[in-house]
Structure formats: structure tokens, C-alpha cells
Design goal:
This is Taurine dioxygenase, alpha-ketoglutarate-dependent. The chain is α+β, with helices and mostly antiparallel strands. The protein is built from 8 helices and 20 strands.
Length: 325
């Protein structure tokens, strides 16, 4: 993630227990764009995330302009685990995830060869209840986990195993932007993804990734992965049982494993989700809010919600896995 490029008056975000740093939009009104961008990105670098309240974003065109102005480029999503609607190049709806289900804390696309260094969220319609985008400091999560577990993942990394089919989860076209086999195979080879086409036409993939990285600017060691979120034990129990009955234990749409390929037990997944929960900060959405998240320093998730919810997402500051130590 880039550091602010121009000097600016220092902004101070409001720090409240259990809630993410908050900046009233009035604090930045009247700033020139370069000063505003530098000041806001400075807060993200300092705190890992910042919520700008009362920013007044009202439609996708407004959101796209702000996202493009704040990010060092927006990237197209590849290897999606759930479908999104596209509003513009690099500007998407939130992932299509059941409203009644928790979306576990994670670092966006931490399993991919290219991932966003900066996540941008804008709320156009706030839900009637719930639906917060929680954030958690990944360095604090790293420090709170049992050393032996951290050492194993730091040494071995982790694996993501996926099975794509026409009935459940993201399709090949959803994830790779194409269903052309040659293009999919070329992408997999370029991004160190093992793959195999199945007799029914489905696709099986496996990739090995690091679980712990060093932040490129702050130098802090961060727990950077989606080990818990994409593990089979975070599925609703009845959903997991149904999928195993229909597709078998090796045909789940996704699951994660230790770096050596061993299954990850429910006890480990529960420990990870509990540790995230202990460090999660939440602020209910209000229409017009803008949330910026350092995707390496900070994990994010989504709570269950009631009513309509429209939160747009930008994948900013594209980075390659090789950029991280």
C-alpha cells in the first residue's frame, strides 16, 4: 500500500471502544482532492481502517469516482467464491452471501496471486438491523493465537481446495471471468494453481499460500489468509452434511487445509473465529458512509442482517503475492 504522497493537515479519528476509528465528513470538507486523499490514506495506514461518516455517497457513479480517486488503481476480481454484480470496472456489489449467515473475518483474495492492498466500501442502503462490516487488526490476531499453531502455519502455509460445478457455489465463469478451458488453464498455471477437469465437466483446484506476511509499509507481521472463512467447518452444519452426501468430502465447493495437506479440525477453525471475534470492531452502517480498510493489516467480515442492504465494494491498490515478505 502506498504512503500519502503530499503533505496535509493531520486528521485525528475518533477512537471508541469496540468500534472502528471514525472520521466525521465535516473534518475533510473544503480540502483539495490531493490533500483529502493523502490525509485519509494516512489514517488508514495509522489505524488499519477508518469509517468516514456523513460523506453523502448516494449512487454508484459517486462511489466509483471516490473509489478511483482514493485508490492506486482498481482491479477486477478473479477466483471469486461467490457471485457479485459489477457496477463499473473494479466496483462491485457485496458478495452474494445469505443474509442470515455470518460471513467470517478474512483478508480479501489472500489466496490469489493478485489481491487488493486497499478495500473500499460505500453504503448506499443501510439494513434494518445487523449487516455491519466488522474489522479486526491482523497483527493483534496473530499475537493472540497459540504460538505453536502460528508457527505451523508460518512454516507450512495453507492450502485452498475448490470444486466448481454447475449446481453449487461460484461457477468457473464467475471465478475466472471466462469458461474457456484454455484461458482458465493459462490463468491457473500463471498463478501456481493445480487443476484437474472432472468427468462431469467441473473443475478441481488446489493452491498453496502463505498464512503470515510482513506488512510492506509498517513491517508488522500479519495473519493474512482465509483459513477459517473458506473452511468447510464454517458452513452451516446442514449445508455441509448435504454437500458431503451429494458430492463427497472431496467435492465441496471449497475448504482449507494445513500446508502439508492435512485436514484442519473444527477445533482449529473455532479457535480462529473466536480469536477474530475478540478483536473485531463494529459500527452500524448509515447510508452515505465510506469505509477504507488496509487489506493486509486488517481483516473484515459481515454480520447477518435484516432488510435491504446495498454496500458497494472496490478492490484497490492491486498487489502481487511476491510483493510481500
Amino acid at each position: 500500500m502506498s504512503t500519502p504522497s503530499v503533505p496535509s493537515a493531520r486528521l485525528t479519528a475518533e477512537i471508541r471502544p469496540g468500534r472502528p476509528p471514525l472520521l466525521p465528513a465535516d473534518a475533510v470538507r473544503g480540502m483539495g482532492w490531493d490533500e483529502f486523499r493523502a490525509a485519509l490514506r494516512g489514517l488508514v495506514l495509522e489505524h488499519g481502517a477508518v469509517l468516514v461518516r456523513g460523506f453523502g455517497l448516494a449512487n454508484p457513479a459517486d462511489v466509483e469516482g471516490v473509489f478511483r480517486g482514493l485508490a492506486d488503481g482498481l482491479m477486477a476480481e478473479r477466483e471469486a467464491f461467490a457471485a457479485r454484480s459489477s457496477y463499473a470496472d473494479g466496483v462491485y456489489s457485496s458478495s452474494a452471501w445469505p443474509a442470515a449467515q455470518q460471513m467470517c473475518m478474512h483478508h480479501e483474495l489472500s489466496y490469489a496471486g493478485e489481491f487488493p492492498g486497499l478495500m473500499l466500501f460505500a453504503c448506499l442502503v443501510a439494513p434494518d438491523g445487523g449487516g455491519t462490516t466488522g474489522v479486526a487488526d491482523s497483527a493483534q490476531v496473530f499475537a493472540a493465537l497459540p504460538p505453536a499453531l502460528v508457527d505451523r502455519f508460518a512454516r507450512e502455509g495453507w492450502q485452498l481446495v475448490r470444486s466448481y460445478n454447475a449446481e453449487i457455489g461460484a461457477s468457473v465463469a464467475d471465478s475466472f471471468g471466462t469458461d474457456d478451458r484454455g484461458a482458465v488453464e493459462a490463468y491457473c498455471r500463471a498463478n501456481a494453481i493445480e487443476f484437474a477437469w472432472q468427468p462431469d465437466g467441473g473443475l478441481w483446484t488446489r493452491q498453496h499460500r502463505r498464512a503470515v506476511v510482513t506488512h510492506p509499509v509498517t513491517g508488522r507481521r500479519c495473519w493474512f489468509n482465509q483459513i477459517a472463512f473458506l473452511n468447510e467447518w464454517t458452513m452451516e452444519p446442514e449445508v455441509r452434511e448435504y454437500l458431503i452426501d451429494v458430492y463427497g468430502p472431496d467435492g465441496l465447493p471449497f475448504t482449507t487445509r494445513f500446508g502439508n495437506g492435512e485436514p484442519i479440525g473444527r477445533d482449529v477453525v473455532d479457535l480462529l473465529t473466536e480469536t477474530y471475534e475478540q478483536h473485531t470492531l463494529r459500527e452500524p452502517w448509515q447510508a452515505g458512509d465510506l469505509l477504507l480498510v488496509d487489506n493486509i493489516a486488517t481483516a473484515h467480515g459481515r454480520d447477518p442482517y435484516q432488510g435491504e442492504r446495498e454496500v458497494l465494494v472496490g478492490l484497490g491498490d492491486p498487489m502481487r503475492a511476491g510483493d510481500l515478505r
